[in-house]
Amino acid sequence: MCLLCDLKSSVAAAPRPEHVWSARRAFLLAGAAGAAAAALPAAAQVAVGETSALRNLVPAEQLERAASQQYSAMMAEARANRVLLPDGHAQVRRLRGLARRLIPHATPWNRRARNWNWEVNLIQSPQINAFVMPGGKIAFFSGILEQLRLSDDEAAMIMGHEMAHAVREHARARLAKTQATGMGLSLLSQMLGLGDVGNVAANLGTQLLSLRFSREDETDADLVGLEIAARSAFAPSASVSLWEKMIAHTRNGGPAFLSTHPAGPERIRELQANLPKVQGLFEQARRGVQRSPT
């Protein structure tokens, strides 16, 4: 999810969902983090650590339900404004074709993702942007495809990046950290059974619209997305050419997609350092595609 707040000006927000859970339950969920955490795939090649255990303070099912409602409302508003491109549009078919190749290699990073109702939509807008919401709800803006003239490999790097945010549950962790920071020591006291947090999840849907990932989350998504794309037979080198194109647009203030990301040269160096780790995965996947019947 890369700058959802930009979407608020063009797509209306849905009514916020009302969900309630007790602080005691949240504490128990956090305590069970070791068992509930989405483990790294055994064959993972990029060097990323486990996802934050704090995310267990936010029940995944409730967050995904809130995200699904918010996403559906945004797509409905986009359709009403005639900016949601139809299923038969060539670029929509293209993006969904990329997703079909990527999803099987994204789900090993999170066992719950196998049961998600993944969605990919395209909004007609000059914005150079894309985003994901929890539960695999992805949207691209047409500007990112048209203005950057993305190849399939480059578009797959963006989609892999967004899928990585979802399967690594960055939004869930960021919301938990925001709640913990805002409530401070009083929250800890309540979690220990000395009080009731109350309706902690009441504003989940609204918060998802303004959530920004940390630089660490963005780097994590870059690397996990790189591996997902390589395993799907998309050229790892496209990750570098993609960001070179992104950086070229900074002369005019920069794409929204870059706003919270690591600096261009820094991210390119990180990606280049990881290309050798996934090149073999790409070559193996490409051979498999070539052997497949047409």
Describe what you observe in this structure.
Helices cover 54% and strands 5% of the residues. It is mainly α and 294 residues long. The chain has one domain (4-291). Helix 6 crosses helix 9 and helix 10 (238-248) packs antiparallel against helix 11 (264-291). The longest helix is centred in the last third of the chain and has 28 residues, at 264-291. The radius of gyration is 19 Å and the shape is globular. Residues 3-37 and 182-202 have low confidence and may be disordered.
**Could you say which structural class the secondary elements and strand pairing correspond to?**
mainly alpha
Strand percentage:
under 5%
Number of domains: 1
Helix content: 40-55%
Q: What's the mean pLDDT score? A: 77
Largest sheet: 3 strands, mixed
Q: Using only CA atoms, what is the Rg?
A: 19 Å
- Note poorly predicted spans: 3-37, 182-202
| Oligomer category | single chain
Q: How do the helices and strands follow one another from N- to C-terminus?
A: HHHHEEEHHHHHHH
Give a concise summary.
The model is unreliable at about 5-35 and about 180-200 (pLDDT under 50). The chain has helices at about 25-30, 35, 60-80, 90-105, 140-145, 150-165, 170-195, 205-210, 215-230, 240-250, 265-290; strands spanning about 120-125, 130-135, 135-140. The protein is mainly alpha-helical and about 290 residues long.
Summarize the SSE layout with pairings.
Layout: H1 23-31, H2 33-36, H3 60-80, H4 90-106, E1 119-123, E2 130-133, E3 137-141, H5 142-146, H6 152-167, H7 170-194, H8 204-210, H9 215-231, H10 238-248, H11 264-291
Parallel strand pairs: 1-3
Antiparallel strand pairs: 2-3
Helix pairs in contact: 1-7, 3-8, 4-6, 4-9, 6-9, 6-10, 9-11, 10-11
